[in-house]
Design brief:
The complex is a heterodimer. Helices cover about 80% and strands about 0% of the residues of chain A. Chain A is mainly alpha-helical. The longest helix of chain A has 27 residues, at about 5-30. By secondary structure, chain B is mainly α. Chain B has six helices and no strands. Chain B has helices spanning about 5-25, 30-45, 55-60, 65-75, 85-95, 100-135. In chain B, helix 1 packs antiparallel against helix 2 (about 30-45) and helix 4 packs across helix 6. The longest helix of chain B is centred in the last third of the chain and has 36 residues, at about 100-135. Chain B starts with 6 loop residues before the first helix and ends with a helix. Classes of the chains: A mainly alpha, B mainly alpha.
């Protein structure tokens, strides 16, 4: 993977992190019980970290751009499914 | 050993040093930024726990964390780029800042750095356009 493609992956990953902060921020604004907010912060971040780790390993092992982008897409779907305000579970 | 001596902080400082050195040399090239960005990504997602459990209390009570929270609150009061320009999102993020871990605060701060870079680039461009226009008028 060249640097341009790697930048594209990092852009997609930044999008995932922004999605995480947006989900947490909007849920927090709805003033849920503290435990639920902390739970979302932790579970959502676990998904972000797992995605980061998989992306890092995929790039280091020479996986193509499309494959790495798909990894991020799968985790975006996970965050969508976690969103308490707008839960979205894609069709299997 | 204090938190400030930890590897995560060192990684960030090293990257900033590299970026500053490149800027001083007047050779900030796209591929340099790309490498610095990749280094940051590798540092952040190398391990699952960014702060070892025995260091967590020190981090939680540290001046560094307090300063980071203060900086982020100020950033949230400023002009923000999407998706952080939503009023409800800003309110929510302010309410949840105290629950964020070190890595989460660092990542949020990275977006503030980006906004800062974007604004600086815009100011440079505006300055350039103004000076070019005045040269043409003369």
């Amino acid at each position: 993977m060249n640097k341009n493609e790697r930048d594209q992956v990092l852009d997609s990953f930044d999008h995932l992190i922004k999605k995480y902060f947006k989900m947490v921020g909007l849920f927090s604004n709805a003033q849920p019980p503290e435990g639920r907010l902390k739970g979302l912060i932790n579970v959502g971040w676990t998904a972000v970290q797992a995605c980061g780790k998989q992306v890092k390993e995929a790039i280091e092992s020479g996986k193509p751009l499309t494959e790495v982008t798909l990894i991020i897409f799968r985790f975006e779907q996970q965050l969508d499914a976690l969103d308490p305000l707008h839960p979205f579970v894609p069709n299997a | 050993m204090t938190y400030e001596g930890s590897q995560a902080r060192r990684g960030r400082d090293d990257r900033n040093d590299k970026l500053n050195a490149s800027q001083e040399a007047g050779k900030v090239e796209e591929f340099d930024r790309s490498d610095i960005r990749w280094d940051h990504f590798q540092d952040t997602f190398r391990e699952y726990d960014d702060i070892p459990p025995e260091m967590f209390a020190i981090w939680f009570e540290s001046d560094l964390r307090r300063q980071l929270l203060k900086d982020l609150e100020e950033w949230l009061d400023g002009d923000l780029e999407p998706p952080f320009d939503d009023e409800n999102l800003i309110k929510g993020l302010k309410l949840s800042l105290g629950f964020f871990s070190h890595a989460q605060l660092q990542e949020l701060q990275r977006f503030t750095d980006k906004v800062g870079e974007g604004l600086a680039a815009l100011e440079d461009q505006e300055h350039f356009e103004k000076s070019s226009k005045s040269e043409i008028d003369e």
